[in-house]
Design the sequence.
């Protein structure tokens, strides 16, 4: 970990290591005011050992932001911001403010008027046409950035970061997709750079030459007709002449159809964007997006692809990651898996964000770190799925004598099923991480063990936590007991054979995943694709076909009007994109009437149809498995039921309930 923990100079700042926490929208600041909740959240990340924390985005004026952002648009916010910077500084961590102007991405409902932009072109996010900025508007926006930077300096921030990524205002000026102006701010690339450069100059003038300034750049817009890394390199090189001290590189716009931070993105997959920027600038570069492992971070710094690494959700998942990595405690590290369930999904519905793998995230003020109890108890956890693993680890860390029982050979439960699909492999990463944390915590593990009330009586625990999970539903459809009918869980576990023509019943998350999994059978893998491509064995279109067309014909049936109704909005579109890519034929508003030897009889809009198939795969939901609770109440003083055993839901709820169950002991 030598490269990751080597100090580095950024402007006039000396960072103690190469770990940066980029800005995240948290929804912890109603009315824009810094809250104790926000301070507690960032102070914990500072304690954990990050070198630099960037907070924001921080709207630079009253018309530039969203609700619940950390506001820096007025002097009245300075006292609260000073409390935040003081708290972070107490732990030897530096802090920067990200200066934000959303341009056409700002909803009119938030600001009480039309958003402004270089040209009156609506975004796919708001579907509202913005007002084209006048020269006076442009001057006002530039001045707003400068005044906000001055406030940041007065509030004790060590640096400011200008936001020029994700499709926000500066990138709207830079892109020919959104800038159709004919004056000095439009047309040629030099003209389109003008606004961003003038913002940079104004910020530099406001804070002085000795104050550190960063810029957040999208290394590629990933927008049809937009800027690629070639254009962004030119912009970065020019920015280097205007006083930028470091380049924070991400990728893509919010409208882009290229996934940026979902778990299907390969780890470190966008490091190449930072590497290309690094070739044309002389100041440090930060690489971001899906770098969730300190070992990977160390490697890409060591090889020279970047100077620093951004862990945003990674430090939300485990604020102690820097200290754990520095001290060689990687088996205790909990990674971000890019699930988006508690973070981005919450942002888009205006809820405070949380974290699936870290139930304390956002609750630091109310939920202290786990500490040793004065009254240790014997705790029996039944079930080694996400809820059981969370409960066992937390209870053991609190000093209780914990024994975990799991009926199968492997720990992780449904996380292992969810991680079968290559694009969802990070669920298995989490199962592995949670499992590895049990032994250091002191948990006694018994796999391949079925628990009954006699075993519980023999063990004589003080507390039993029932985390026995769920089982797939078998619906009451005529013919459901036929030989050709199997459960999705058995397909994902590779316990059953399937034919060439398959109908999947149920278009929720599990149905989509198993349909995609089956449709991918027979496609070439990534290594073969690379081999064929590098050797020019096939043309690009043939390679695309070999990568996406398998040997199975899959039809997905869903009763509701849309697929993936139980999937968060920030990942649902990616899952639907996969279905389309691999040729799955989906039928919504379609009800299964009967399963026959020939296939599935369905009804849609009053008309019936027989879909011929060899195999029917059921993915219609989960029932709780909880036959022990009532029996155990007669022999154990305290019984706590969590996760799917309580009610079928997501891993987020299971892990949270496991964590808090340990606190009830």
Sequence:
């Amino acid at each position: 970990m030598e490269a990751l923990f080597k100090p580095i100079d950024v402007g006039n700042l000396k960072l103690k290591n190469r770990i940066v926490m980029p800005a995240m929208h948290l929804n912890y600041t109603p009315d824009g005011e810094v809250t104790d909740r926000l301070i507690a959240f960032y102070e914990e990340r500072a304690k954990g050992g990050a070198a630099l924390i960037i907070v924001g985005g921080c709207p630079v004026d009253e018309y530039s932001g969203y609700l619940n952002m950390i506001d820096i648009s007025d002097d009245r916010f300075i006292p609260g911001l000073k409390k935040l910077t003081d708290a972070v500084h107490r732990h030897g961590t530096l802090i920067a403010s990200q200066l934000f102007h959303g341009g056409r991405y700002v909803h009119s409902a938030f600001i009480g008027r039309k958003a402004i932009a270089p040209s009156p072109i609506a975004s796919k996010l708001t579907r509202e046409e913005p007002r084209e900025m006048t020269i006076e508007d442009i001057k006002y926006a530039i001045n707003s950035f400068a005044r906000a930077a001055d406030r940041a300096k007065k509030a004790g921030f060590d640096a400011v970061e200008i936001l020029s990524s994700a499709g926000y205002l500066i990138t709207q000026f830079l892109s020919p997709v959104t800038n159709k102006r004919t004056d000095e701010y439009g047309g040629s690339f030099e003209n389109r750079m003008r606004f961003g450069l003038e913002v940079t100059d104004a910020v530099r003038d406001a804070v002085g030459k000795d104050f550190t300034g960063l810029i957040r750049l999208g290394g590629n817009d990933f927008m049809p007709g937009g800027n690629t890394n070639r254009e962004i390199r030119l912009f970065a090189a020019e920015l280097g002449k205007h006083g930028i001290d470091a380049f924070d590189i991400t990728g893509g716009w919010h409208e882009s159809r290229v996934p940026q931070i979902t778990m299907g993105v390969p780890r470190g997959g966008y490091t190449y964007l930072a590497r290309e920027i690094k070739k044309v600038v002389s100041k440090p570069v930060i690489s971001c997006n899906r770098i969730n492992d300190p070992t990977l971070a160390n490697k890409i710094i060591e090889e020279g692809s970047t100077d620093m690494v951004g862990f945003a959700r990674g430090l939300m998942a485990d604020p102690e990651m820097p200290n754990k990595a520095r001290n060689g405690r990687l088996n205790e590290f909990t990674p971000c898996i890019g699930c988006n369930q508690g973070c981005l999904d919450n942002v888009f519905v205006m809820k405070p964000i949380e974290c699936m793998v870290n139930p304390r995230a956002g609750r630091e003020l109310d939920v202290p770190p786990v500490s040793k109890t004065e009254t240790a108890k014997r705790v029996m956890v039944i079930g080694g799925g996400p809820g059981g693993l969370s409960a066992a680890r937390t209870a053991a860390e609190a000093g209780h004598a914990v024994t975990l029982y799991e009926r199968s050979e492997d720990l992780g439960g449904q996380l292992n099923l969810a991680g079968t699909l290559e694009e969802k492999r990070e669920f298995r990463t989490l199962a592995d991480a949670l499992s590895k944390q049990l032994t250091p915590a002191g948990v006694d593990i018994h796999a391949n063990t079925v628990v009954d009330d006699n075993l519980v009586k023999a063990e004589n625990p003080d507390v039993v936590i029932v985390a026995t999970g769920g089982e797939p539903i078998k619906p009451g459809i005529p013919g459901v007991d036929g030989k050709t009918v199997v459960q999705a869980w058995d397909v994902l576990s590779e316990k059953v054979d399937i034919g060439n023509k398959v109908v999947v019943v149920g278009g929720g998350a599990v149905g989509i995943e198993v349909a995609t999994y089956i449709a991918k059978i027979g496609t070439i893998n990534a290594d073969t694709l690379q081999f064929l491509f590098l050797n020019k064995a096939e043309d690009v279109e043939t390679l695309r076909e070999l990568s996406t067309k398998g040997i199975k014909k899959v039809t997905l049936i869903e009763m509701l009007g849309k697929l993936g109704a139980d999937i968060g909005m920030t990942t649902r579109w990616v899952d639907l994109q996969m279905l389309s890519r691999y040729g799955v034929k989906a039928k919504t508003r379609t009800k299964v009437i009967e399963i026959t030897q020939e296939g599935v009889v369905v009804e849609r809009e009053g008309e019936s149809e027989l879909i011929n198939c060899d195999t029917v795969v059921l993915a219609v939901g989960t029932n709780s498995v909880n036959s022990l609770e009532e029996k155990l109440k007669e022999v154990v003083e305290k019984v706590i039921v969590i996760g799917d055993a309580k009610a079928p839901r997501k891993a987020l709820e299971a892990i949270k309930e496991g964590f808090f169950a340990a606190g009830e002991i």
Q: What stands out?
A: The chain has a mean pLDDT of 97.
